[in-house]
TrEMBL record:
It is a multi-pass membrane protein. One of its GO terms (cellular component) is membrane. The chain crosses the membrane at residues 12-29, 49-66, 95-113, 142-165, 177-197, 217-235, 256-272, 319-346, 358-387. PANTHER family: CHLORIDE CHANNEL PROTEIN CLC-E, CHLORIDE TRANSPORTER. The keyword Transmembrane applies. This is Voltage-gated chloride channel protein. Its main location: membrane. GO terms for molecular function: chloride transmembrane transporter activity. It comes from Lactococcus garvieae TRF1. SUPFAM superfamilies: Clc chloride channel. It is found in: Membrane.
Amino acid sequence: MKNIKIGISRWAVLYAVLALVIGVIIGAVDALFGRGLIFITETRDAHPLYFLPFLALAGLLIVYVYQRFGKDSQKGMGLVFEAGNKGREDIPKRLVPLIIFSTWLSHLFGASVGREGVAVQIGATIGHTVGGKLSSKEAQKVLLITGMAAGFAGLFQTPIAATFFAIEILMVGKIEYIALFPALVGSYAASATSHALGLEKFSFAVNTDLNIDPLVLLKLLVVAICFGLVGRIFAQGLAFMKTYMASKLTNPYRRILLMGLILSLGLIFIHLDRYAGLGTNLISMSFNGEHINAYDWLLKLFFTVLSISAGFQGGEVTPLFAIGASLGATLALLLGLPVGLVAAAGYVSVFSSATNSYFASIFIAAEVFGFGTVQYILPIVTIAYILNGNASIYAQGKLNLEV
């Protein structure tokens, strides 16, 4: 028994040290990526007509770079799931510069894409590279999860949510308890590093003054159902469009050229630049009492699904936050509920439904909006999560539940 305890403690110390190193490295890379993205977004927003008309040309360059230099890197998150669930030996290191460059380019020219998926891929690559130096397959998987969590935390600075996000999407229906401690260490290290390097965290103090009565409960039930269905529609719609585009436009150059032209026209003529990029403008407007159109969430969903299925790089998470927040603000005004609280619930619930992640969503609510909001948001997230029908933007993770 004593020898077992010594062996476990040695592994715990090794994991902690490696997780700390991984977290610091990933936090620094996330800071570079995140601050670059902020600069690019500000540049595009200042002169949208300098960039939006040329989205298709940017897409052609992205496809060329991946075809010429990317090899397996174009699989993106697929590589992460192959490494975690199918024993893939390596994630190409070239993925990191390629995904950063292509995401910056996608955002500069207005594609409606996110950033968290990129950070998770960056973290997974670094974590898996370090883990590859160890002979233990279990240790390699633990450090892969640690890297994924650190990638999320370094960019979003929600270390507890990041830890559960990495575990939940990789191993659906199962908690890898052995990865919890190193993932937390890596997440906190990445979060602290990126913050020290000037990357700011988004947070908002939500007013939780809500008088609960049967009518309010009924309204909150309606809200929760809407969030769950919208998240499910996003996940299933994205899966359908990816398959449809790949079958109808088999040439990736033609696909991204045609879709880039369509997206450019839409992003220019439908509320110029409003639905381009991350969607942080919609998030800010939802929480600051600015005007939100009743259809903002729907158009953001539409442009995001088209952008990602066309082949632009970036991810889905931040647009999901924008969709949820703007839908929440709209429903709150319609039903006479507190806008901030319902927007916050939408922010995390649509994300929960679309990603099939439950605990991560709860901790996002706590770390972004305050732990006092959890008692109100938890039931809404739970209903939205149940209604997602096991759909997920991370389809490879769902397979793990079915095996």
